[in-house]
């Protein structure tokens, strides 16, 4: 698997499972109908775990333009590769959103609430205040990217040579920390905007909402769409700057 394919496939899995749990909770006549916010937050945490587990070995599992931008700003990823990673993430997010729609197509048909249908694609604020909504996305993404930059491998000394250091590999379990971070962000900070914290996760599915022939889907809310794109990018850059200021590269 090439890094580009890994980013595409991983972001597709992320959105398929993440938006899938939203669809299961908010659409009519599903098995998980009215499951609540904890189910959605847990589902997104598991979505991150599965996506990272499947792709980290091949691309580093950014799966998020804000993470990619933050890593570039922190000097941990080459800027020349950033456009291809972001393109893969956008395409993967659009495919994932399309698969959610196909999976729940009959439930979209029987759901009358246009807002609920949009929620299965992209985020919307519960109280619409663009400055506050923007801040929510900045701070949520800051926590995500700062945590990602802070995660370390376990090291141990090999003999007396201080330069001889071994690393403890966690295998697939290594995807768990960032998954718990996303779960925590959802529980603690997600109640304002739905915590996009990922431009591709919001914009790609929003485009699909616009394009797909969903009965009674209503507006794709393009007047709000810049908030979950620009806010996370600012949050990622802020996290990189503070991480460099506090702990260095």
Question: Can you lay out the helices and strands and say which pair or pack?
Answer:
Elements: H1 3-26, H2 37-59, H3 65-73, H4 82-103, H5 105-110, H6 114-119, H7 130-150, E1 154-157, E2 165-168, H8 176-189, H9 199-211, H10 227-247
Antiparallel strand pairs: 1-2
Helix pairs in contact: 1-2, 1-4, 2-8, 3-4, 3-7, 3-10, 4-9, 7-8, 7-10, 9-10
C-alpha-based Rg, rounded:
18 Å
Strand content: under 5%
> How large is the count of helical segments?
10
CATH C-level: Mainly Alpha
CATH architecture: Up-down Bundle
> Which structural class is indicated by helix and strand composition?
mainly alpha
Largest sheet: 2 strands, antiparallel
Give structural notes.
There is one protein chain. 47% of the residues are buried. The model has no long low-confidence stretch (mean pLDDT 93). The two termini are 29 Å apart. The chain is 64% helix and 3% strand. Strands 1-2 form a two-stranded antiparallel ribbon. The chain has one domain (3-247): Glycerol uptake facilitator protein, CATH 1.20.1080.10. It is built from 10 helices and 2 strands, in the order αααααααββααα. Helix 1 (3-26) packs antiparallel against helix 2, helix 3 (65-73) packs parallel to helix 10 (227-247) and helix 7 crosses helix 10. With 249 residues, the chain is mostly helical. A hairpin with a 7-residue loop joins strand 1 and strand 2 (165-168). It is globular, with a radius of gyration of 18 Å.
């Amino acid at each position: 698997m090439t890094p580009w394919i890994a980013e595409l496939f991983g972001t597709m899995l992320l959105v398929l499972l993440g938006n899938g749990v939203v669809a299961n909770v908010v659409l009519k006549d599903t098995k998980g109908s009215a499951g609540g916010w904890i189910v959605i937050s847990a589902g997104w945490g598991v979505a991150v775990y599965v996506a990272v587990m499947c792709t980290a070995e091949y691309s580093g599992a950014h799966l998020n333009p804000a993470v990619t931008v933050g890593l570039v700003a922190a000097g941990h990823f080459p800027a020349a590769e950033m456009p291809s990673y972001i393109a893969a993430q956008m395409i993967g997010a659009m495919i994932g959103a399309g698969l959610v729609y196909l999976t729940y197509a009959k439930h979209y048909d029987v759901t009358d609430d246009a807002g609920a249908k949009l929620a299965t694609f992209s985020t919307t604020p519960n109280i619409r205040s663009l400055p506050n909504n923007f801040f929510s996305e900045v701070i949520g993404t800051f926590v995500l990217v700062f945590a990602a930059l802070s995660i370390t491998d376990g090291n141990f000394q090999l003999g007396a040579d201080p330069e001889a250091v071994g690393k403890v590999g966690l295998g697939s379990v290594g995807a768990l920390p960032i998954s718990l971070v996303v779960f925590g962000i959802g529980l603690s900070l997600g109640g304002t905007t739905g915590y996009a914290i990922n431009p591709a996760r919001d914009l790609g599915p929003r485009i699909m909402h616009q394009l797909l022939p969903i009965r009674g889907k209503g507006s794709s809310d393009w007047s709000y769409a810049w908030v979950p794109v620009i806010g996370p990018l600012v949050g990622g850059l802020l996290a990189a700057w503070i991480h460099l200021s506090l702990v260095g590269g």
